[in-house]
Amino acid sequence: xxxxxxxPSEPRLGGGWRRALLAVVVLFLGGSGxxxxxxxxxxxxxxxxxxxxxxxLIIALMLFAMGIAGxxxxxxxxxxxxxxxxxxxxxxxxxxxxxxxVLLYLAFAWLSHFxxxxxxxxxxxxxxxxxxxPLLLRINARWRSDLKDNVGDVFALxxxxxxxxxxxxxxxxxxxxxxxxxxxxxxxxxxAVAGATLVAFWQxxxxxxxxxxxxxxxxxxxxxLTLAAPGLVTDARQRLYADPIxxxxxxxxxxxxxxxxxxxxxxYLNGHLQFDSEDEYIYHExxxxxxxxxxxxxxxxxxVLGGGDGLAVxxxxxxxxxxxxxxxxxxxxxTALAREYEPLVRLTEGALLDARVSTAAPQGVSAGPTVxxxxxxxxxxxxxxxxxxxxxxxxxxxxxxxxxxxxxxGEWDAVIxxxxxxxxPDLAKLFSLEFYQQLRRRLAxxxxxxxxxxxxxxxxxxxxxxxxxxxxxxxxxxALHAHVPNFGEWGWHLARLExxxxxxxxxxxxxxxxxxxxxxxxxxxxxxxARPADGAVVTTRLDPRIMYLYTRGEPLSGPHWFPGSTxxxx
Length: 570
What we know:
Elements: H1 16-48, H2 51-72, H3 82-110, H4 114-140, H5 147-176, H6 179-200, H7 208-239, E1 245-250, E2 255-261, E3 264-269, E4 272-276, H8 280-294, E5 301-306, H9 311-316, E6 324-328, H10 332-340, H11 342-347, E7 357-360, E8 366-376, H12 380-385, E9 388-397, H13 401-407, E10 412-418, H14 425-428, H15 433-440, E11 443-454, H16 460-472, E12 476-484, E13 488-496, H17 516-522, H18 545-552
Parallel strand pairs: 5-6, 5-10, 6-9, 10-11
Antiparallel strand pairs: 1-2, 2-3, 3-4, 7-8, 8-9, 11-13, 12-13
């Protein structure tokens, strides 16, 4: 039986080092292909949102292209060209895959048809990945002519490499490197694999000058892009924001950007506005003070879930009775910004600052630092002597809020839920029936919950789904809304187990926006904002309906030539 991988007159290759190299190459390709898929899908999610849609489409398109590549490899019919085709495939895959994140970010900033570039690159990279395994099978047939042994060797190593790639992606690459650096480094590694394969199969490659020229040009191009990428990405990022970028950092969870000029500044997470210093006090006063007023007693222990910027904590600390605040936020980069970025420190009035004392939380979860918040003494004598008065202990916990509510014991007079809008499954679970049921166990008797709930205008059905889900969890609710200039019409919900929360009267602490009449008006919903008449919507982990309602928005009711929907802001 003739070996399909070489001509009858061609001697089989000897040398165990070639087989060992080939095994390492297969392991690398199994991991790198998976990382390319994750990198493209994650970048698309950061830029476009809706992680389910992006991961589904991109991975499906790449798998489709891999299938097409499996058929296309048959056109490499000459046995002497198999190794050459593999080296060229690796070279071009390294060039395109390595440049993909930077090119897509530039396309997002400069092109109106970004999705065409995104899905086109997904198909192209998937096609390159799809060529690798069939060509490797044909190369490996030189040593493993039995089909079952050949397929077993290559696919076993490929799948082991995929597992290794997933682990490295989750625990090394994503936490420590930005997506553009990940793709560039991976592309350079692909080119190194192409070079090693070229050396190993030098005698079996006929058009050596062509292969060397393509490889050299690709290395030079990707190396040049690696050097130019920081400047290109900075220019593209600035194009996405109307105001000058003043601060930028990428964390394992999100892209953090501060823009603004003069005293005014804005914080964006993955391109979504979180607050503008000009009007954030409206949002945070409505989030915090009605809940503490509805408590009916002086609040002493307050839990803030989300809100790593420290602005909700600032409002909580205005209540002199508060003894302890626990802030639970997933991203330490955001809380570090609140402690170290001077404009934000001033805006939060130092809510997360001063001396830090390490503490340990139950069940082996590190609770992070406890921060004693102090203020200058109010008397002339205390001021002259530099004496300071202890206000409260603010404790930071960098943990997913869902894990905290399920696993960390404790009871709180008030829980402030300052989460981003439910635009992804990871966020939608924080608005779910199961989450609110667990939250019941963290409330002291008579305790109150406040929930950031989105816009009752642009995402009206999603807004009222929060109330429906809280009620299904056994809470009685009160809805609030107000106009925040940079967000538009915005809303919150108060929830309580024993009785409906009923905040009224003047806030007992200093405020800039909220007063008695404003609080009363915030509880009145005109018809365009009122609860829809199409029935209750309860969102769960298995059926995150709030995510679909949020991403869809509310349909516009204008003339038929103006289709579309309103857009969420946060």
